[in-house]
Design goal:
This protein has 321 residues and is of the alpha+beta class. It contains ten helices and 13 strands. The N and C termini lie far apart (46 Å). The structure holds adenosine-5'-diphosphate and magnesium ion (MG). Adenosine-5'-diphosphate binds next to helix 1, strand 4 and strand 5.
């Protein structure tokens, strides 16, 4: 490497993010020291990004820096946690300064938006791999779990579904650049929005929550497994973006929404009587919140059409189920 490990840390990471009052020792010593909050539980999440697996060659360094933090903040959002600190373990094939600059910028932009301070990490040489760990707070005992869904709960999702999957499909077909919705779809795929404020609002309200990284059916499936419950998804209620409606057939849209990953929206269940309050919160925060179905006591996930007829998951792109 042209730059040494220490020069990389100094130049790009030591002062990348704004300082928080609760960090006593940040980057530069053997470990970070942070002040802990009385009466709170510490939420901790880690995610690794590997080139080629977790982002396509078209992703810029800035996109990758953003995404490495975004997918972690999304996990905190799904727990209802308020983000505080991050650590970054970076393995690089070479010290490419243009790349490092873009990466650090993408990371820091998002960190500053959520008041997250980068407090440590590790820098090594090897095939590109990025591991971020985030820490955040929830008042003791109020973290949102996957396990609390109850029969009769409404199932809601934030935002629109399937956009990232549609973007990736168009990208792989070489058709994204020509699309009239290129900017919107690129944003949805490369810059997923961690729904942190929603997660915090859901504390004490939602019975269960998860972020949608692997697709609605798979991730709602995790809630059902942990909650020992089942669910009915009303296919006609699935929220689609204008890009989705204009770029695909209804059948493909349904497939992207049910089976496509990488949206990082939240899926959560709430008692029916909270539906109005939650949807009001969504409108005042400019975030679409849609009830897409309900929890039932019999295990299993069923998708039904407007007439109440069951739609098979295989016909929705779930051949591998
Ligand atoms: P040690 O050898 O004691 O593990 P290092 O020399 O690896 O320490 O790191 C020096 C300091 O820089 C530590 O505080 C470490 O947390 C921090 N650090 C190393 N790499 C990164 C990185 N990619 N991002 C943020 N902080 C880092
Ligand atoms: Mg080290």
């Amino acid at each position: 490497m042209a730059l040494s490990e220490f020069e990389i840390i100094d130049c790009y990471f030591a002062h990348a993010t704004a300082e928080r009052d609760d960090v006593r020792v940040g980057i530069g010593d053997d470990a970070a020291l942070v002040a802990v909050r009385a009466g709170h539980d510490l939420a901790v999440a880690t995610d690794t990004l590997i080139a080629g697996v977790h982002f396509p060659a078209e992703a810029t360094a800035e996109d990758i820096g953003y995404r490495a933090l975004a997918v972690n903040l999304s996990d905190l959002a799904a727990m209802g946690a308020e983000p505080a600190w991050a650590t970054l373990a970076l393995t690089l094939p070479a010290a490419d300064e243009t790349w490092l600059n873009g990466f650090a910028r993408g990371f820091a932009k998002l960190a500053d938006r959520f008041g997250v301070q980068l407090i440590g990490g590790d820098t090594t040489r090897g095939p590109l791999s990025i591991t971020v760990t985030v820490h955040g707070w929830v008042p003791a005992g109020t973290g949102l779990l996957r396990s609390g869904a109850k029969g009769g709960d409404a199932v809601l999702v934030s935002g629109t579904l399937g956009d990232a999957s549609l973007a990736l499909t168009l990208l792989q077909a070489g058709e994204l650049d020509a699309s009239t919705h290129r900017d919107f779809l690129s944003e949805r795929f490369f810059r997923p929005p961690p729904r942190v404020a929603l997660g915090e609002h859901l504390r004490g309200r939602a019975h269960s929550a998860i972020d949608i990284s692997d697709g609605l059916v798979a991730d709602l499936g995790h809630i059902l497994e942990r909650s020992l419950a089942g669910a009915v998804i009303e296919a006609d209620r699935l929220p689609y973006s204008m890009a989705m409606r204009e770029c695909t057939s209804p059948a493909q849209a349904r497939q992207h929404a049910l089976a496509g990953g990488d949206d990082y929206e939240l899926c959560f269940t709430i008692p029916r009587q909270l539906e109005q309050e939650i949807s009001l919160w969504g409108s005042t925060h400019d975030l679409r919140l849609t009830r897409i179905g309900y929890i039932v006591t019999e295990p299993g996930l069923r998708v039904v059409d407007a007439q109440g007829h069951e739609v098979s998951l295989e016909s929705c792109g779930y051949a591998h189920f």
